Amino acid sequence: PFEFRLDQNYPNPFNPTTQIQYSLAKAGWVTLKIYDVLGREVSTLVNARQEPGGYTVTVDGSRLMPSGVYFYRLESGAFSAVNKMMMVK
Fold first, then answer.
1. pTM for the full model?
2. Beta-bridge mates of residue 49
């Protein structure tokens, strides 16, 4: 059985790509977004209905993000989790 979980990205710090893994306990609408340290949305990685299971998303920061600290947030139903990652160029 799966649980709602948001794992730490790997590698971290990263340049230029990293992977974010998460799992869902039940089907529902899922959003996975990246924010800068000021709370501004940088990118939407997932915005779709997904079935229960494990997922991996690859982030390519080469065109999106300058060096710095970022936060990624997963939301699905009542579940919400945030982790920190660092882009180093």
1. 0.93
2. 29
